[in-house]
Specification:
The chain is an alpha/beta fold. It is built from 19 helices and 17 strands. The chain binds adenosine-5'-diphosphate (ADP). Adenosine-5'-diphosphate (ADP) binds next to helix 11 and helix 13.
């Protein structure tokens, strides 16, 4: 092959000469023999020179004797620059020992067959080559020099490297998938044990209503946890396949945050964390899918709660920045080492410190957060000062093009939701629930009254004229829907904010609440923060 190529390269004349030479296998006269030798040498020189490979000869001391065009092409040195120089001009310093070994073998007459190594070009570039070195002998058979043929194998090496990298990536993905399946089985099995115990306990005779309620709560909590895991899994697969669609409406940030807090509240309470809210006083409007956006913030809040030891401090801050809103969730928890920060949003990523914690997870929450935030045209970043120093996740979302609120409307809002507090009526036939809710709202600076029946609520409200009423739906004398209709029928009740508090979160329950005249529908258990955020946003809406 090589010969064919070189012949072609040298055109018709050389080919004709070659034919002549090979035809004359046994020259008749010594002069003719000499001429044939000269031709043969010229032909060999032509072959060497036109070879794609670098063909170089050197003395046994390593001094370059000849240098073909291939060598210039691969290593960059011209023949006049290379010839006479030590061969080490193309050998990287760390491989000088290899060259000494080659020279030793050559002196013993040994040939060094194809091996892959690296040489360095004139411009310092590393070149991957396949090298053959053979001894050159004189007429008496003594080794007097060496010839090396070097083939540039950079492209092959690159292809091999790519193949190796993609094989490695596949192996890693496969291992991750196995680990993930094991984790998934573990995480889905975990909640089953408490559910089984609670069911078995409830079947035992002589259980008090309180004991049954506790068991029911355990079941509810665990089922909610399982459905969250499954929802996350389904969502992440929808995001990856690009089939998740947002149902965008115009929403107020505080109602999104309120819904997120409601979801995270059980875990925040269980771990006795303090949640500090710092929300802007002016309403911030987003064009968003309220359920999906609430999922973003509840995931961040749940992570903050999970990765912070009990009694920690978790802060949710929101502030307007030009045409965006920046929402950050920070915690005083285990923190994230700097080298892991860039990977936390990757699917299935979990740090060892996180894996060691009982709360567990599937490692898809943050990747879901990023996917959902991006679908909303925003971005999310993670920050931490390192292990044990807490973490902060910052979400940036575009606001609906700024509307210029009249200044006096803002003043009115502030007056209504300022220090004076709101007049609130809490209605629930569960006295404990009503009283504790009232205590919490009072602690936030509101004036609160409680009623335990529908009739009592109507009587009280007539004189108290609450800004807002929180109504339980399952009341003994009339259901909350009827109560809401009756409130709406009064002159004072038309302006009041009515919030339904129920155990049912289905869409039809919400619709029924809206049809009965409620402004909002909250699913139990609700938290003071949720109510507070909701009231603030509703009162602002009313005032504006
Ligand atoms: P999961 O919580 O199910 O493991 P996520 O995708 O929500 O999965 O989070 C990925 C990883 O990021 C976690 O395993 C944990 O290592 C780290 N992480 C997330 N949030 C926090 C946080 N608030 N503090 C410390 N580490 C966190």
């Amino acid at each position: 092959m090589e010969v064919d190529r070189s012949l072609k390269a040298h055109g018709g004349k050389s080919r004709a000469r070659m034919r002549k030479l090979t035809d004359k296998a046994t020259p008749a006269f010594p002069g003719e023999l000499e001429r044939a030798r000269v031709h043969e040498r010229a032909l060999l020189a032509a072959i060497v020179d036109s070879s794609d490979d670098a063909i170089v000869s050197k003395t046994l001391e390593g001094k370059i004797l000849s240098w073909n065009r291939g060598a210039t092409r691969i290593f960059g040195w011209e023949p006049h620059e290379a010839i006479g120089k030590p061969i080490t001009i193309i050998i990287p310093p760390e491989l000088h020992a290899e060259e000494r070994e080659i020279l030793r073998k050559l002196s013993r007459g040994e040939r060094i067959d194809h091996f892959d190594t690296v040489r360095v070009a004139k411009d310092g570039r590393r070149v991957a080559i396949s090298l053959t070195v053979s001894p050159v002998r004189d007429a008496e058979g003594r080794v007097i020099a060496a010839s090396k043929i070097a083939r540039d194998v950079s492209e092959r090496k690159l292809a091999e490297e790519k193949l190796r990298a993609s094989e490695e990536a596949l192996r890693l993905a496969d291992r991750r998938k196995d680990e993930f399946l094991a984790l998934l089985a573990h995480e889905l099995r975990n909640p089953l044990a408490p559910i089984r115990y609670a069911l078995a306990a409830n079947k035992k005779p002589g259980r008090s209503p309180e004991q049954c309620r506790q068991a029911d709560e355990i079941i509810e909590r665990q089922v909610a946890h399982m459905s969250r895991l499954l929802d996350d899994l389904l969502d992440i697969s929808r995001i990856t396949r690009g089939t998740l669609e947002l149902k965008r409406t115009r929403v107020e940030l505080t109602s999104v945050v309120g819904a997120a807090i409601e979801t995270a509240r059980p875990l925040l309470d269980e771990k006795h964390h303090t949640l500090v809210l710092d929300l802007p006083t002016q309403p911030l409007q987003l064009e968003a899918d309220v359920v999906r956006l609430a999922q973003v913030f509840s995931n961040l809040l749940i992570n903050a709660a999970k990765y912070t030891d009990p009694g920690g401090r978790i802060q949710l801050r929101a502030a307007r920045q030009d045409d965006d809103v920046i929402v950050s969730v920070s915690d005083s928890g285990i923190g994230i080492p700097a080298d892991l920060l860039p990977r936390v949003f990757n699917m299935f990523f979990q740090s060892h410190a996180a894996l060691a914690r009982a709360e567990g997870g599937l490692g898809v929450g943050l990747s879901l957060v990023r996917g959902l935030v991006r679908l909303h045209g925003g971005s999310v970043e993670a920050r931490s000062d390192g292990p044990g120093r807490g973490s902060e996740f910052t979400v940036r979302l575009p606001l609906v093009a700024a509307r210029h609120e009249p200044a006096d409307a803002v003043v009115e809002v502030e007056a209504l939701s300022g220090d004076a507090g709101l007049k609130l009526l809490v209605v629930d036939d569960n006295r404990d629930a009503a009283d504790t809710c009232a205590m919490l709202l009072e602690a936030s600076g509101h004036h609160v009254q409680t009623a335990y029946t529908g009739r009592q609520a109507l009587e009280l409200a007539r004189v108290f004229r609450p800004h807002a009423m929180l109504l339980d739906i399952g009341l003994p004398d009339m259901d909350g829907y009827k109560l809401a209709q009756q409130v709406r029928a009064t002159p004072w009740g038309r302006a009041a904010v009515l919030v339904a508090v129920t155990g049912w979160g289905q869409e039809q329950d919400r619709q029924r609440a809206v049809a009965a005249g409620f402004d909002q529908h909250l699913v139990k258990p609700i938290s003071a923060d949720t109510v507070e955020a909701l009231l603030q946003s509703l009162m602002r809406g009313t005032a504006a």
